[in-house]
TrEMBL record, chain A:
Upper classification of the organism: Bacteria, Bacillati, Bacillota, Tissierellia, Sedimentibacter
Organism per entry: Sedimentibacter hydroxybenzoicus DSM 7310
Ranges of residues in domain ABC transporter: 6-256
Keywords: ATP-binding, Cell membrane, Membrane, Nucleotide-binding, Transport
Organism domain of life: Bacteria
Subcellular location: Cell membrane
Keyword ATP-binding: yes
InterPro entries in the record: AAA+_ATPase (IPR003593), ABC_Ni/Peptide_Import (IPR050388), ABC_transporter-like_ATP-bd (IPR003439), ABC_transporter-like_CS (IPR017871), Oligopep_ABC_C (IPR013563), P-loop_NTPase (IPR027417)
Record membrane topology: Peripheral membrane protein
BP GO annotations: peptide transport
Name assigned to this protein: ABC transporter ATP-binding protein
Entry keyword Disulfide bond: no
Family per record: Belongs to the ABC transporter superfamily.
TrEMBL record, chain B:
Gene3D superfamilies, alphabetized: MetI-like (1.10.3720.10)
GO BP term (any one): transmembrane transport
A Pfam family the protein falls into: BPD_transp_1_N
TM ranges: 9-29, 101-122, 134-157, 177-196, 231-257, 277-303
Domain of life: Bacteria
Lineage summary: Bacteria, Bacillati, Bacillota, Tissierellia, Sedimentibacter
Protein name: ABC transporter permease
Protein's membrane topology: Multi-pass membrane protein
Domain ABC transmembrane type-1: 95-300
Family as reported in the entry's similarity comment: Belongs to the binding-protein-dependent transport system permease family.
Entry keyword set: Cell membrane, Membrane, Transmembrane, Transmembrane helix, Transport
Amino acid sequence: MYDKLLEINNLHVNYKTADDVVYAVNGLNLSVRKGETLGLVGETGSGKTTVALSILKLLPEKIGFISNGRIWFESVDITKTSEKEMRRVRGEQISMIFQDPMTSLNPTIRVGEQIAENLLLHKKDMTKKQISDRVDEILRLVGLTKEKKNDFPHQLSGGMKQRVVIALALACEPKLLLADEPTTALDVTIQAQVLSMMHKLKEKLDTSMILITHDLGVVANNCDRVAIMYAGQIIEEGNIRDIFTAKHHHPYTLGLFGSIPDMSKKTRRLAPIDGMMPDPTNLPDGCHFWPRCTDRMDVCKMCEPNPCYKDTHMIKCHLYKDLYNERGKDYIVGKDE
Amino acid sequence: MVRYILKRLIIMIPIIVGITLIVFAILNYTPGDAATLILGFDATEASLDALRAKLKLDDPFMVRYVRYLVGLLKGDLGISWRHNTPVAAELMNRIPNTLGLAAYAVTVMLILGIPMGIISAVRQYSLLDHTTLFIALLMTSIPTFWLALMMMLKFSLELGILPATMPTSAAITWKHWVLPTFMCSANLTASTVRTTRSNMLEVIRSDYIRTAKSKGAGQFRVIMYHALRNALMPVVTIVGINFNVLMGGAVITEQVFNISGVGNLLISSVRTKDAPMAMGCIIFIATVIGIVNLLVDLLYVFINPRLKSMYVRNNAAKEES
C-alpha cells in the first residue's frame, strides 16, 4: 500500500454536452506503484485519455466532470485539490506526454523556451543560466542537439517533435508520467527509438509511468503491469505474465489478442471482435461487454460482474466467479504485492 | 526580409500608376467641362477658351496623362485648377487630419476590441460575454453615419458637451475628435471584438494550450503567452482591412463632421472637376492602403514565425532558378 504512488478508486467521469451525457469512465479502479510502468490498453473511445486527463484535472472545462470517485496521488486527493495547488502538481509531480506531437507544441514559441517554461514555472530558484543548461541537457537526453532549442516546432520532423514533447514532460523529473499513445503518430522505426529512449529515461529518473496505448506489442516490451480497459472500466488487470501467458482471460482480452496477426499459426483471417464499442451515452445494463461477448450468459445482461482475483491477476467477468476469488469473499491478493 | 520589403514597395509603383490611369480617364471622359465649372455658366466663350488653353485641356488624353505622369515622377502633383495653388501644399494641410482620425480610430479599436474579445472568449457564455456580443452586433448592424447624427443630436445639441463639427485647425481640441473617432471606430471595434473572440475560442481549445496547462501554467499566462499570439493572426488581417475601410470611409466621416481632411477635399475636387487635386487625393489614399497592407504582411511574419521561413524559402528558390 505504501509504495503506491497513485491510486484511483471508483472513478466516474462524465462529459456533458448539449443533448447527452457521455459516460466516459464508469467506476474505474487503478493503482500505480513507484517506479512501475503500467500499460493502459483499450480500443479507441474506451476512456483511456479521459483517465489521464482526470489525473491532471485537465478535463475540458464546463464539459468534463469527475462525478464520483477518488484519485489519490501520494497522500493527496486530486479530486479535492484546488486549481491553484493543481498547478503546482502539473508539470512538476505529474506530467503528460500528449498523443499528437504535431499539434501539441505551440507553433509560435521556440521549442527551447517551451521546455524552459516548465522549469521557469516550478523551479523558481534556478537562474537563467541553470535553466538554459538544463534545457540543453534534457534535449541531449532525448537525443536532440542543443542547437534545436532555437527552432520553432514547424522546423522539426514528427519524431523530433515527439522528442520535444517528451523532453517537456521530463524537464522537472516528475514522479508520474502519463504517456498518452506517445508513439501512435510516429512511423515504426521512430516508434522503437522513442520507446527505448523513454524506457531508459524512466529507469534513469526512476519515474512511474502510465503508458496508454492500443498496441499490445508496445505493452509487452515496456510494461510491468497491464490494465485492459473497456467502456470506462478495467476489465482485466495483472502483471505482464498474467496478461500474456496466463490460461484464463476476459473474453474481450481474448478478442484483442485475436485481432493481432500471429505469425506462428496458419490462419486465413484474423478473428476481430464483432460489433462496436457501446454508445457511451447509453451503456448496456449488466456487463458492458455482453452485446459483443461470445461467452455471454443470462446473468451478464442483468448484473455487473465483480472483479475476480487470482494472485496478481484480476478479471472482471462472471465466467471466473468460481475459478478466481471475488473481492470481499476471500481476498487473497496481498497488499504486500 | 529587406529584399521582400523592397520587392513589395516596387510592386506598389505599377499599382499606383494603374490607379492614376483609371482615375484620370474617369475624370476626363465623364460629362462636364472643367472650364465651365471653374468659370461658371455665364462665362464668355473667349475666356473659356483661354482657360482651356492655359490648362492644356485641348491636348489629346494620352498626351495629358503622360505629361501628368512625368510631373508625378518629378514629385510634382500639379496646380489645382480651382484654387491655383499647388496640390501638394493643400494635401499636406489635410493629411494630418485624415491620418490622425484613422490613427485615433485604430487605437480605440485595438485597445478596446482586443481585450474585450479576449475576455469574452475566456468567460464564454457569461453575462459579460453576452452583453459584449450584443453591443458588437448592434454596432456592426447600425449604419455609422446615422449613429453619428444621433450622437450629435444627443451630445452636441441636447447636452451640449461635445462640439458637432470641426473648427479651423487652430481651434481644434480633443473634444472635437471624440465624436468622429467614435463614429469611425464603433463598427471596427465591433468586428475586432467578434474576430478576436472567435479566434481565441478556437485557440484555447487547441492541443498546445492543453500542453501549456499540463505544465502548470496559470490561466493568465496561458492566455497571454500561449494563446494570444496565435489568435491574433486573423485580427491583424481585420485591422488591415479596417484601416483601408477607414481611408475610404474618411470621405463620409469628414463630410458629416466637416473635418478638413483628404476625403472632404476629394469630394469637392471631383465635384468641381479639379483633376490634379482629385488625382493627388487618390494617390495619397492608394499609397496609404498599399503601405498598410505591407505592414500587415510584415506583422504576420512577426507574429507567426512559420511564415518567415516561407518567405525565405521563396527567395531562396528564386535565387536558385
